[in-house]
Design brief:
This protein is of the alpha+beta class. The protein contains 3 helices and 4 strands. It has a 4-stranded antiparallel beta sheet. The longest helix has 23 residues, at 36-58.
Amino acid sequence: MPEMTVQVRWPDGLFRQYYSPSLVLHDHLAPGPYSVEDFRSRATTALEEASSRVRAKYGFACTSAAASAEAIVSDAARHSDSAQVEVVSMYPPLPASTDSTPVVASLHPGSTSGEKDS
């Protein structure tokens, strides 16, 4: 199961890094600003989901995900819900999405490439 970390800058300038046992944080967060309330909600929901994935795969919950969720709740409590927290980075990033739309070359009769005949 791939693991990841997310780095956050809290409104007071404190940088913190949180661990997740799965890439599920990418489903709930992206780099950028959030209100403290929104970040706390999204992050703890994602970490609960990550812990559930660990439980489904290994038969026990992930205590590291629970510790990250507790740390986020504790860090968030130092700030007003409307203050801005910034997700600075998420590592590893998701693989670059590739456009699955097939590319169709415009071939001229008798041609084997997409270039025009002279």
